[in-house]
Specification:
By secondary structure, the protein is an alpha/beta fold. It contains 14 helices and 6 strands. The strands form 2 sheets. The protein has a 4-stranded parallel sheet with strand order 4-3-5-6, with helices on both faces. The protein has a two-stranded antiparallel sheet with strand order 1-2. The longest helix is centred in the last third of the chain and has 15 residues, at 276-290. It is globular and about 50 Å long. The chain binds adenosine-3'-5'-diphosphate. The site of adenosine-3'-5'-diphosphate has 20 residues, from helix 3, helix 7 and helix 13.
């Protein structure tokens, strides 16, 4: 038995050139053939960009702001993770596609796939997509802590080493280049039914962003519902909500004592971690890799 599969992972596999957890790569044939339904709503993000936050907001919208209904199950069961497949010894979760097959419509579907790997059925069925992006400095810090607490990842090394891993986007970075991810989805937004949101905007004015989502979905909600959604999906509320904070995941898979899944929930935490030299190097790399794009990020709010 390959013991590394059930402890910390030694290294990632590769999915069409994108570094990814070996167990996800093994499950890929089922994901590639996934049959979307026209009323599926896809939540797409690069990891650590506010996926869970957006998922909770959408589940609340789908349940007209009924807090109790949104406590019916853990977020990873309410919003299945399309390409997720983990050995049963690590988590009792069924694979994302299995869970999705059993989920009644209208379904919310989570993915971190780069746009070129999204199963074609989502495009064929013309499904709506909400993409959320977050500035890369906060993403890399959040990802660094997540690598430590979620055992599916290889050891991230020191922060300096992980910053290099992030910038190089080589074999050690699950889901590959952040730059290609955010840019790939950004370029598609002209053509498709895609709403592109930013974590920083959501921090600054969550009410405005929730209204944007409602308009995109063509939904109207009763007075007071938006306020209830905003309260229930605040960082403080989600952090103490066992249905949203991932604490029901087995410790063998996620160890919250190393770092909680809902860790800080702010914009600009990178400033507490980057040295001046690291920041300058990161800025240079960022400028080179975002050149020619009209996609801009707020590094703090
Ligand atoms: P930090 O590690 O910076 O705290 P994802 O869900 O994509 O994995 O993203 C996780 C990040 O989103 C974590 O960032 C987490 O704290 C943050 N997050 C989750 N819920 C949030 C909320 N309600 N408000 C603000 N940030 C939230």
């Amino acid at each position: 038995q390959d013991s590394g599969r059930y402890g910390r992972q030694e290294e990632l596999g590769s999915l069409h050139g994108i570094p990814l957890y070996k167990c996800f790569v093994e499950g890929w044939p089922q994901v590639e053939d996934f049959q979307a339904r026209p009323d599926d709503l896809l939540i797409a993000t690069y990891p650590k960009s506010g996926t869970t936050w957006l998922s909770e907001i959408l589940d609340m919208i789908y349940h007209d702001g009924d807090v109790e209904k949104c406590r019916r199950d853990a977020i990873f069961n309410r919003v299945p993770f399309l390409e997720m497949k983990v050995p049963e010894m690590l988590t009792p979760c069924p694979a994302g596609v299995e869970l999705l097959e059993k989920t009644p419509s209208p379904r919310l579907v989570k993915t971190h796939l780069p746009i070129q790997l999204l199963p074609t059925s989502f495009w064929d069925k013309n499904c709506k997509v909400i993409y959320m992006a977050r500035n890369p400095k906060d993403v890399v810090i959040s990802y660094y802590y997540f690598y430590q607490m979620a055992k599916i990842h290889p050891d991230p090394g020191t922060l300096n080493e992980f910053l290099e891993t992030f910038m190089a986007a080589g074999v050690g970075l699950a889901y590959g280049s952040w730059y290609e991810h955010v840019r790939g989805w950004w370029e598609k937004k002209q053509e498709k039914q895609l709403l592109y949101l930013f974590y920083e905007d959501m921090k600054k004015d969550p009410q405005q962003e929730v209204q944007k989502i409602l308009r995109f979905l063509g939904k109207e909600v009763a007075e007071g519902t938006v306020a209830r959604i905003l309260h229930h999906t605040s960082f403080q509320e989600m952090r103490k909500n066992p249905a949203a904070n991932y604490e029901t995941m087995p410790t063998a898979f996620m160890d919250h004592s190393l770092s909680p899944f809902l860790r800080k929930g702010i914009s600009g935490d990178w400033k507490n971690h980057f040295t001046v030299a690291q920041n300058e190097r990161f800025d240079r790399h960022y400028r080179e890799h975002m050149e020619g794009s009209d996609l801009h990020f707020q590094m703090e709010v």
